[in-house]
Amino acid sequence: MNRPIRPSRILVHLALILYTVIALGPILLILLNAFKTRRAIFADPLGFPDARTFTTIGFDQVFAKSDFGLYFLNSLTVTVVSLGLIVLIGAMAAWALTEYRFRGNTIIGLYLAIGIMVPIRLGSVSILRMMVELNLVNTLTALILVYVAQGLPLAVLILGEFIQQIPRELRDAARCDGVSEYRIFGSIILPLIQPAIATVAVFTMVPIWNDLWFPLILSPGDGKQTITLGVQQFIGQYVTDWNAVLASLTLAIAPILVLYLLFSRYLVRGLTAGAVK
């Protein structure tokens, strides 16, 4: 016998559908208009490109008037290196805070929690002053350091929760066999928290790739610009080349969409792990 669908469940699904439309709407709008003429973009922004309105002039201008390959490489380097350091350092810190009890353990956990609650952009002036003193302005290193500091608190929190769910008997059995702590961490802990690592990777990767604020103040020089900053050259005070802007945004969105599709299975597993014990 089929049970009646509760109104609250219908409302939840409607809310999720609405959120999906709001989240995917801008992406679909960019993809649709990236292949249309300027006149068609303003005449029918929601329409699909046809034989009369289809054009790739925006992509031609992006590759002809900008060093898009360099911008892409800079963004890829910053994102990959930052993500690798966040996952590695975050996993080690989460392992230390959950496995070992020492003086200051609670204080460190509270300090990391504050790092989640307080936006790092509030310290932009101090960060810029520090990077100037370290002679790191207009370098990718400055961006990597900031993004690692930005992503570590959340990474430690998520990975720590997953490590706590790993049965302690596994670690104790390995210690009884004479396995070192480094081997336990690398051979037992890391493989078991792969869904959590994928969750951290997705949540960390998107803000880093899409960030404009810190590239604008820390690496605005030629040769060090990221994709989001490089796109700004097509946006003028009086005239904006919308074909080039939409084309460059399409090229910038594509890697994120591909990586999200690749990690989506692990992301869902990571988000739902621990919900049912």
From TrEMBL:
Keywords assigned: Cell membrane, Membrane, Transmembrane, Transmembrane helix, Transport
From the record, give the transmembrane residue ranges: 12-35, 71-96, 108-128, 140-163, 184-209, 244-263
Query: Is Membrane one of the keywords UniProt gives this record?
Result: yes
Localisation: Cell membrane
Reading the lineage from the top rank, the first entry is Bacteria
What does the record say about its membrane topology? Answer: Multi-pass membrane protein
Residue ranges of every copy of the ABC transmembrane type-1 domain listed in the record: 72-263
> Where does this chain mainly localize?
membrane
The record ties this protein, via PROSITE patterns, to: ABC_TM1
Q: Which family does this protein fall into? A: Belongs to the binding-protein-dependent transport system permease family.
Q: What is this protein called?
A: Carbohydrate ABC transporter permease
